Amino acid sequence: MRLPTIPISILDRANARAGSSPAEALNAVIERAIRAEELGYRRFWVAEHHAVPGIAGSTPTLLMAAIASRTSRIRVGSGGVMLPNHQPLVVAEQAATLQALFPGRIDLGLGRSVAFTEAIRTALRQGWDAAERFEQDLDELLAYLSGTASITARPADGGMTPPFVLAMGKGVEYAARAGLAVVVGGPAFTGRKSAQAQETLQRYREEFAPSQWWAEPYVIASGNVAVGETAEAARDLLLPEAWAMTAARTIGDFTPLEPVSTVRDRSKTPRQQTMVDEHLAAAIHGTADQVAERLTELLTRTGADELLVTTNTFDTDALWDSDRRLAELFE
Questions:
Q1: Residue 132 has what pLDDT?
Q2: pTM (2 decimals)?
Q3: CA-based nearest residue to 273, from 249, 246, 235
Q4: What is the pLDDT of residues 68-89, one digit of tens each?
Q5: CB under 8 Å to 78, separation ≥6 — which residues?
Q6: pLDDT at 145 (0 to 100)
Q7: CB pairs under 8 A, 24+ apart, for 267-275?
Q8: So what's the pLDDT on residue 2?
Q9: Residue 1: per-residue pLDDT
Q10: N or C: which end of the chain has fewer CB within 10 A?
């Protein structure tokens, strides 16, 4: 089965791996981006996380520069820069600098999340209420990018860098008013609240105001997608991150990704096993035909213009093989 020829992209959170150095984790991200370009992926994005033991990537714009310098065609972006953590002027300057160095290849995905712990929020000089000023910060950032602010961010971007909003709910409303593309979580459209999620996207399309960046609404559906030679192999691919997410919620520590065998052998409480199972159930995984069937359902429900894959795992060879198998479905 072959899916519609919509663009497919990757978001890599730069997970750390047990027994590997941070440098090895970051270089694995760059290597994956190089392979993704060869496979025909549209974009390769990286994320922002602060003081998380299991994440090597904390500064997306720096990692974006490294990726863009090692690739030549694929678009490179953030998924995303958490705007509450930064002054809009600084974000605009960073994006404009990247755009000047790598013209026509830079995306700017923006989120409204604040740090999970009080210690990190204090270090970032932010409180829980920082997310509430997202729309104001977004308007200021867009003014710098478009050159309509009271001062000019240097180097001048001239509106070359397309912004995306990573959100549901209020974030989608902000994106519609500003005329920006949105990135929405795929699992929201297959669970109990799928009807509500579809209504949110419908309002986004109806209320969208064209901008210099986007003439029409643009929706990217994101989610964990793993394609394996067998259904079991694909499920195994997701286990390390499923455990890391579970550990973060039950132990309070997002740990580096561990081998599948280690995760399987680990003693888990009933609650932890339930969380692992829920994480796996929210993902799309299986053989090529199984994944194609579920992706068809997701793309139909969302009407998405693009798919953003957020999968990561301990075994980089298995991860790259999944990327290859997924790309073949969209050929």
A1: 83
A2: 0.95
A3: 246
A4: 999 999 999 999 999 999 999 9
A5: 45, 46, 47, 48, 60, 61, 64, 107, 108, 109, 110
A6: 95
A7: 272/246, 272/247, 275/242, 275/245, 275/246, 275/249, 275/250
A8: 62
A9: 59
A10: C
51 backbone φψ class: left, alpha, beta (φ>0; ψ -120 to 50): left
Pairing between strand 284-286 and 306-309?
A: unpaired
Give CATH for domain 8-227+291-329: 3.20.20.30
Paired tokens of 136: 């104001």
What is the spatial distance between Cα 110 and Cα 91, in angstroms, rounded to a whole number?
Answer: 10
Residues of the chain with pLDDT under 50: none
Q: Length of the chain, please? A: 331
Query: How many other CB atoms sit within 10 Å of the CB of residue 248?
Result: 17
Q: Token pair for residue 160?
A: 């070359």
The predicted structure's pLDDT at residue 284: 96
For CA atoms 191, 192, 197, 198, give the dihedral sign: positive
Q: Which stretches of the chain are DSSP H helices?
A: 22-39, 60-70, 88-101, 118-123, 134-146, 170-178, 194-207, 231-250, 260-265, 270-282, 288-302, 316-329
Written as one string, the DSSP assignment of 93-151 is: HHHHHHHHHSTT-EEEEEE----SSHHHHHHTT--GGGGGGHHHHHHHHHHHHHT-SSS
pLDDT of residue 259: 97
Nearest-Å Rg of the Cα atoms of the chain is 19
